[in-house]
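Section 3.1: Structural characterization of target chains.
Under the original work plan, the team committed to producing a structural model for every single-chain target entering the pipeline before any wet-lab resources were allocated. The record below documents one such target. The sequence was received from the expression subgroup and is listed exactly as submitted; it comprises 154 residues.
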Amino acid sequence: MSTPAAQTPATTFNPRENGSDYFWYQQRIQAISSAAPTANAQINLDADSDFYCVALTSVTDINTAGLGAAYTESTAPLPLVSLLITDTGSGKNLMNGPLMIPGFTGDGKRPYRFVRPRVFMANATIQLAFSGVFLAAGTSYDIQIIFHGYKVYR
C-alpha cells in the first residue's frame, strides 16, 4: 500500500513546489558589559510561515575600549553571559531559567542541534533576555544568536 503524495514529507526544500525553505533568524546585541550587564532583544517572525528551529549557534566578539579583538577559531571567546529565550506564540520560556550561552549554543561549525525541530508559529516573537552579571570589569561583548531552521509557508 503506497502513501498518497500529499502525505509524503518533502525531501527537499522548494518554496514553489512544497511551500518550505531553509531560513535563519538572528539577533545581535552590542556592548554587554559589567557596566551595562543586561540587554533585551527580540526577533519578529514573519506572518507568512511557521518556523521550525533545528539548531542554535552564537558568535561572540570581545570589544574592549571599542577595539575588536582578533577573531579566529582558536580565539573565539565563550561569553560568561546567560540567556533566557521566550516564545510569545506559545507563551512559554524554552528553559526554566537563564542558561550560560556556551552551554546550549554551538559555533558555526558545530551548532547545538535539537533532537526534534522546535516550531515557532507565524507572527510570534522570540524574546531574548541577556544577563552578563559574571563579566570582568572592562570586558564588553558583542553577541549574535542564530536560530537555524526552515520555514513552512501557510
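The beta strands are 20-33, 38-44, 49-64, 67-68, 82-87, 92-93, 99-100, 112-120, 125-131, 140-153.
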